[in-house]
Amino acid sequence: MDILFLAHRAPFPPDRGDRIRSFNILKYLSQRARVHLVAFVDDDAVITDEHRALVDECVLIRRTKSQLRAVAEALAKQRPVSLTAFADREFGRAVKDIVARRRIDAVYAFSGQMAQYIPDAGPIAIMDFVDLDSAKFAAYAQDARAPMRWMMRREARLLARYEQAVAARVSASLFVSAAEAALLPGSRALENGIDTVFYDPALAVPVASRHPLIVFTGQMDYRPNVDAVSWFARSVLPLIPDARFAIVGRAPTAAVRALAAANVTVTGEVADVRGWLAAADVVVAPLQLARGVQNKVLEAMAMARPVVASAGAAEGVDHAGTIHIASDARDYADRVTALIRDPSGAAALGRAAREQVIARYGWEARLAPLNDLLGLAGAGRVG
């Protein structure tokens, strides 16, 4: 079986939320079929021989279109900016070339921006929206100021129309959680998993800390993460005596870097996030805008750490009560402080969280529905 895999960002290395999902799906498919990858590539992509060995063809195209040009095209063509930003003739030619040369049995499009490259007729088409982008932009619009409020509302409206049209013409529409899938009728959930062999506390060397350590992990130029750590550092941390807050993740924005202080560490990119997670007395996920299953929560649970999360960050995770949910600043501070003061109870909560992740979130089990959706035969790759 030959599968054409389209991605808005090359799934290498698997070190951020979307790439972790796309990499593991690509890996799963490559064990069962011949995969032909066409993807945009960012400056931080690291492509190894091991990665290339997963696919029969690997066409990587660098994005060069500026945001200003994407906006101008979107306004002129009455299209969402999210789509014009990824509209690229070279990418389209690469897709047509593979379809012309190969007998493609199925297309797997990862992220809504890739729907524009799905052939109009022919093979089975699976659209992995991951999250519902129209709902995300609608949420952004709620606290945006003019003229950005108008742009966000426009994006949400046009994307909602586009998402519905795409869902009507593909074989299946997938989302990262049941809550996201419910927003687009006829869709289904394909949940994220976690590599519990890699995220094992027994394999990590904790970073040194002389004070109680609270850790947040994530891509630090992603707006929901920026908003979350800014709010926590300013509104929650002052309520927790003698604690230190570590913001761990690549590409911190100027707003994130400005949070650095005697009790706040902004690490930037780290070689291995497990050392910071292993050192954490508590891991927090205070996201106010959270969509789908949060990898940061699964990773902390797999590392047997106690987690305090917002309702939104915990919504897509089947945690069976093994993480604590907090609401306002006082609630966060009280829950974090209680865990810091009760290390044995915190450790027991962390162990229970790891057991839940092992039982519930292995990648093989999470991705098994793809066998029926794509008509995959077995686990052995066709040579």
From TrEMBL:
Keywords: Transferase. GO terms for molecular function: glycosyltransferase activity. It comes from the Bacteria. CDD domains: GT4_PimA-like. InterPro entries: Sugar_tfrase_PEP-CTERM_Stp1 (IPR017521). Gene3D superfamilies: Glycogen Phosphorylase B (3.40.50.2000). SUPFAM superfamilies: UDP-Glycosyltransferase/glycogen phosphorylase. It holds the Pfam family Glyco_trans_1_4. The keyword Transferase applies. This is Glycosyl transferases group 1. The lineage of its organism: Bacteria, Pseudomonadati, Pseudomonadota, Alphaproteobacteria, Sphingomonadales.
